[in-house]
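Quick one: Flagellar FlbD family protein from Microbacterium stercoris, structure tokens please.
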Amino acid sequence: MIVVTRLNRARFAVNPDLIERIHESPDTTLVMVDGATLIVLESMDEIVDRIVSFRARVLQTASSSGMRL
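--- reply ---
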């Protein structure tokens, strides 16, 4: 999960595997695979960086626990 912030400053977690696309014009909008749209304060670059970090953490955890990938 990655943590993002709504425009009203409420924070929530999103499963990045369920994000279909990200738009930035001017607000950043996450379009989910079910068609839901979420408008967040973070920039598109920040969201992408958080997804990359999340995936790296998953791989590192799997590797350190001896799981075969």
